[in-house]
Amino acid sequence: MKFRKALEPSVNASAGTSKRPRLKASGNLCLGFSGGLGSSILLDIVHNTYFSSRPPLDDSGKPRGGTNHPRNASVWPSCSVCYVEVCGAFAGMRDQTEDIRSVIQRYPSFDFVPLRIEDAFDDSWWTMVSGSSSIPQISLELGKEGLIADGLYVASRVTGLTPVEALRSYLSSLPTQTAISSAVQNLTRVLILYTAYSRGSSHLLFGTSLTSLSISLLSSISQGGGYAIHEELQEEWAPVTATGSRLSGALRVVRPLGDVTAKECAVYAWWSDIAVVGRDKQRRAILGIAGLTKDFVVGLEKDYPSTVSTIARTCEKLEPKDAPSGQCRLCQRPMQSGIQEWKGRISIRSFSDDKLAADLTHLPSSSRDSLDTNSTPSELPPSLALTNFLCYSCHTTLTSRSSRGLKRSVPDVSSAAPLPTWVADRGGGLNKVPEEEMHDIVAEFLIDN
Amino acid sequence: MAPTSCSLCRDAKAILKRPKTGQQICKDCFFFVFETEVHHTITEAELFKSGDRVAIGASGGKGKTTAVIWPDMLIVLMADSTVLAYVMKTLNDRYNYGLELFLLSIDEGITGYRDDSLETVKRNQQQYDMPLKILSYDELYGWTMDAIVEQIGKKNNCTFCGVFRRQALDRGANSLNVDHIVTGHNADDIAETVLMNIMRGDIARLGRCTLICTQGEDTIKRSKPFKYAYEKEIVMYAYFKKLDYFSTECIYSPDAYRGHARTFLKDLEAARPSAIIDIIHSGEAFEVKEEIKAAQKAQQTCKRCGYMSSNDLCKACTLLEGLERGMASSVITDRARKKMDAMGPTPENLRTIPLFRSTPTITVEMPSQS
């Protein structure tokens, strides 16, 4: 009941006027599958609720009344199950794709779509899901410590790495374990989003339980993701073109187990005899803030059992303060304006800022005399900097350092950090905008002769 | 290994790593960026106007007090408030804010915790050359925290202390006829409060806890100039300004839930120092939905003492009535309040809080001219 109550109000494209409208989605269904408890249950419930009941057949073996009869019409024409294998990100991790395949084979109505996390750096995957032509790989300049430079400047040289090498180079250039964990999660999410969209899906479901949802909400807030808190609960997503316009047919991302606690999921799985593949323990060790949040919430739940539901209920009552200024190039979520100005205002990181000129007169004369306000690198043209195209959370992921330094598990394979293909496709304003699109933008200002 | 040069002035030797940015900088640059960032916080938010009378709240923590020893005298204050007083005075002189500054301290009546410190606060007014006002719970409510804890025990005593302190600060500021109270709440405090309010579902407080300046209908403006200053940097500032400091915990502070939140925040900070500022950014980026705001209780004034309240009686009057009737432990929640109402009308001879804005003028101690 909780599952249907959470999912079905968002199935139809528009609410309509009927109190009990017939459920009919505008596209296919896609399930994000991790092999964990929530997604295993989601798979089972979706199958039993929407795909297992066969319509009555006539003598010729066809559905009685024809396939267009309302009784025989499915809510979604088809369902695909996307799994992203992350072993490419971590040396020594076991590939679980075949284990997952064997689980999904139990549900013959579902199509299995195996993905690999390194696909995010694979031109052929991008061509397949976006229909775009081949694009050059772009990279970010690394600073002297091998970490991504604060300015997030696009490096001039093309790296030419294999997808796995590019992935590992990207992850190894991230400054903290939290950033690595967050990057893996984002890559996984965006891979599934694009894949689901390319398969004509109108709905993408994740098996996030109430417990996992509360943990991810708190973790996201702790990483500066407050502006996109609504997207953490439920989102409507469509790819954005180089000109910033969204493609038609938004994909609804729903978490229908968002009212069911992890304990309830475990009981359901046990009673229903659902096999859970589980996730590799090695991945658990690098979780950073996400792992700390999980430990904290699960620990607090023992003494304060209502905490988990309170976090989710509180976040449901929030909305972003301002209208978005665009979509983040990296995580593809709405982006707030004025992020860099805010960061610059609350912490002084360089004396070269013009706004500081008047304040610098209050520096002790010994320091002021030796001051060279031009000693910091001059800013590159905006077209070569990615900073202004990232949301607060992604910018922080790439630039926020640990006080203890990074424990490197992957050796550097490049002096630049490659970026996922979807960033390259719109990378930092580097793309040439097609003439037709340019015309559309300026059309109302053109005078016909 | 060659000494690292300051990453800001690039000349002097770096002697510290800024907790907020991770940059290695020299002492002079640290003082400069710390003070200038506070100045920017004040000016961006347009907190003050020339001629404003501003009280610096020399109390206001969550059971946490840091004592500070100046070179030749002992000053026990919240370290945040001590540094705040110092920085406010410095910036007021440097940038000609034109503010009239006062020190305002609240005596909660906790033996061994606050009594000694108040003597040193009095000496502190001379150090800063600011008038000082001390208002006690005993004077205002007729109860000290010692007496409250004696009646209710340690459980929930932070609720009494927090509610009483907030109103006491407002009333103290009112008697000083100031326009503004500034408190030493720092970035760690605000991040912790954001997390706390999310975890306990306090939507009303979540909506306003990241605001730099709050003002009730009938109260004086309250601001947090250290909103973006890390606690570690405040202590660092006190340390490099040749102040020794030591910490002591309030003897009645068993707020376990806040303790969990604080520990969690420290873990987050250890994993990624920017977590504190990231949480504040999150808190500033969202707001409570309009339909939820509309359903919240409208602000009114307390029928008994005239202080702002969302019910007929303000929280302080409710708690005081519970104490006076010997039912203090049953007035923490609205439901318990109804239960107390059901047990009979309020006795006529009940001790109450003086009417707000009609408190008798209390003498303000001026620094001696010697």
TrEMBL record, chain A:
Keywords: Cytoplasm, tRNA processing. Gene3D superfamilies: HUPs. Pfam families: CTU2. Residues 1-20 are annotated as: Disordered. One of its GO terms (molecular function) is sulfurtransferase activity. One of its GO terms (cellular component) is cytosol. This is Cytoplasmic tRNA 2-thiolation protein 2. It comes from Rhizopogon vesiculosus.
UniProtKB/TrEMBL annotation, chain B:
One of its GO terms (biological process) is protein urmylation. NCBIfam families: TIGR00269 family protein. Pathway: tRNA modification; 5-methoxycarbonylmethyl-2-thiouridine-tRNA biosynthesis. Belongs to the TtcA family. CTU1/NCS6/ATPBD3 subfamily. CDD domains: CTU1-like (cd01713). Plays a central role in 2-thiolation of mcm(5)S(2)U at tRNA wobble positions of tRNA(Lys), tRNA(Glu) and tRNA(Gln). Directly binds tRNAs and probably acts by catalyzing adenylation of tRNAs, an intermediate required for 2-thiolation. It is unclear whether it acts as a sulfurtransferase that transfers sulfur from thiocarboxylated URM1 onto the uridine of tRNAs at wobble position. Prior mcm(5) tRNA modification by the elongator complex is required for 2-thiolation. May also be involved in protein urmylation. The lineage of its organism: Eukaryota, Fungi, Dikarya, Basidiomycota, Agaricomycotina. The gene is NCS6. GO terms for molecular function: ATP binding; nucleotidyltransferase activity; tRNA binding. Keywords: ATP-binding, Cytoplasm, Nucleotide-binding, RNA-binding, Transferase, tRNA processing, tRNA-binding. This is Cytoplasmic tRNA 2-thiolation protein 1. One of its GO terms (cellular component) is mitochondrion. ATP binds at G57, A58, S59, D80, I106, G184, D189. HAMAP family: CTU1. InterPro entries: CTU1-like_ATP-bd, CTU1_C, Ncs6/Tuc1/Ctu1, Rossmann-like_a/b/a_fold, TilS/TtcA_N, tRNA_thiolation_TtcA_Ctu1. Its EC number is 2.7.7.-. It holds the Pfam family zn-ribbon_14. The keyword Isomerase does not apply. Its main location: cytoplasm. It is found in: Cytoplasm.
